[in-house]
Amino acid sequence: MLLKVTILRFLLVAAMVGFFLPSILAETTSSRRQEVAEAGTSLDPESISRWIDQLDSEQFEERERAQSELTGVGFPALSEVAGAARSASLETSTRAINILLTWSEREDRQLAVTALEQLAAMKNRPIESARATEVLAEVRELAALEEIVSLGGSYQVNSQLSGLINLVPADHYQIIIGSEWRGGVESLKLLQDIPHAWAISFYSSPLTDEALDCLQNLPQLMRVELYGTSFSKPAIEEIRQKLPNINEKNFDVRQSAAFLGIRGSEGETAHVVDVVPDSAAAKAGIHTGDIISHLEGKEVADFAALTSLIAQYQPGETVQLTIVRQGENQELQTLELPVKLAQWGPTSRAELPELRKLNLERR
């Protein structure tokens, strides 16, 4: 009878340990991650090496704990985790691969890129390697866009081009380097990581002729805008010759970056087809359907002529526009509107697309 009671007690304790152990491990690991984050420093190499060894432990709980700890460490464990992913031990390799896969989906673009680079180089794991290679270019592109924004540049997404270039559905970007650019010429090399850049726009950019070299080797570049820059005419002509696929209309050079904020149609008049919200034109009271007949008393023959006239003024200057507008009773009204010109830049705030997942099964 005593033996039966002892056995029952043993089984009850074992069941309780089995029930509570996973949650205890999870709480311990979570606390450890929080300690590392709060400390703001990397763990000592001995701890990382110990966890790498424990990935192949005979104890399941120890293997789980080690994988969770290494996942939480991040960059400081990158080199050893990548080495473990190439291990001859299937258990060690699989767990290390799973850590890299988790890192590849992190919001930290730098960590995601580095993890994907390691996965792409895994000759012993061809499926993961092929998928990582496919996603790597996309993550690098998003990381480059974020870096450009942090340096004072901006971008806009042109989803209308999706599927029209190389018949591949994808967002395409207009990269804007304006007067607030802090990256100099050196940081323009980031453009090489943005294969879906379809337009590069320099608006009053504080850059020298050397910056124009960045326009080369962009496979999907369709338009270049140089507004109010200090680039020399010889340098502009030289880069124009190096970009034969961009026609004259889409290689747009203007002496000023002054921006009115309307869209017009080709024709014999400067007919306003659309007014950009919150632009200089919108604030001045220009409406869709208006015809701009004069600017500072000079006749405006068509939309191209209007563009040329505006380029003679600087952002912040006020010009007088003569507007012909059709009234409610179909009669034509002539209005004189003062307009304070703005500066070319992004007309809307673009959001980066969500990072695409590898969607590989964790094993």
TrEMBL record:
BP GO terms, sorted: proteolysis
PROSITE patterns named among the record's database cross-references: PDZ
A Pfam family assignment: PDZ_2
This protein's UniProt keywords: Hydrolase, Protease
PDZ domain location: 254-327
E.C. designation(s): 3.4.21.107
One Gene Ontology molecular-function label: peptidase activity
Protein's name according to its UniProt entry: Periplasmic pH-dependent serine endoprotease DegQ
Species assigned in the record: Bythopirellula polymerisocia
